[in-house]
Amino acid sequence: MHILENSYFVLQLPGLKPKFYRQIKGGAMGSAFTQVLADIYVRKWENEFVQQQQQQGELYLRFRDDVFLTTRLPQEQIKFFLSEINKKDPNLTITWEGGKTVDYLDVTTTIEIPNFRTKVFRKLAAQPYVLPFHSSHPIHIKRNIPYAAALRATRICSHSEDLRSELEKIRITLLLNKYPPRFIDKHIGRFFQDATEQRTSDLLLGERHQAYRERTLEPEWKKKEKRKIEFGKDILLHFTYTPSLAHFGSRFHQIWQEIFEDTPLDDIPVMYANRVSDSLRHLSVKKRPSKEAIKLLP
């Protein structure tokens, strides 16, 4: 409670004195604390309604403050029901849209009895932007972008024709961000290989689409057992990434082996990793005010 009642943030523009603002309602956007508190608050508020949905055999899904549900009630009853819920708490106001097709988060869902048809949803204002190929990021990050996009599309698209269309959109987006065609084909092909054991889309977009899609939806699909870091023993070395360090990782281990062979350090695991260069946002926005500014707090 003390945190909620004493929530301040500081705005300090270049050359000007800091200004202090106290938040008297709600919480800071993007704050991990605010997200947890909002989940607790909504969870308490929704309990009775969730039980009703379960008793009626209906769906109720929530992510933060976005809810997806199914109902057999006519629209007039839905409006009345939600207006009654809105009276319960002045801090929560529900707005809704419904129909046989709805957009929820990044999925467009359509009722096709006896099931749903799902495909990727994009807002009209969405730009075809991903991390540019020529950005100063390690190559493994760029390799994962086509792979992850194809995996996401496969998991969301319930029908092969929608998946085919989405894969074309992914390819166009990557080309617009300067990804080489061979690079795109190689890493989307890598996903096809993992999903169907064939590097082309023929099986995934064929008659067995649903079976291969369900395989990718399994929680343990392609999860690799990672060796845990022993912080008391392992040596971790991080270097800020630049293009000149693109192939330095393997060379680093060779140098380490040459220098420390037959020494006590020879048996100690060394982990080389790159940290990404600071972005403009990271350089210009500070989450913590300076010590001098905090001292001025009234």
Automatic annotation (TrEMBL):
PROSITE patterns xrefs: RT_POL
Origin: domain of life: Eukaryota
One protein family per Pfam: HTH_animal
Domain Reverse transcriptase per the UniProt entry, residue ranges: 1-118
Name of the protein this chain belongs to: Reverse transcriptase domain-containing protein
Organism whose genome encodes this protein: Rotaria socialis
Lineage: Eukaryota, Metazoa, Spiralia, Gnathifera, Rotifera
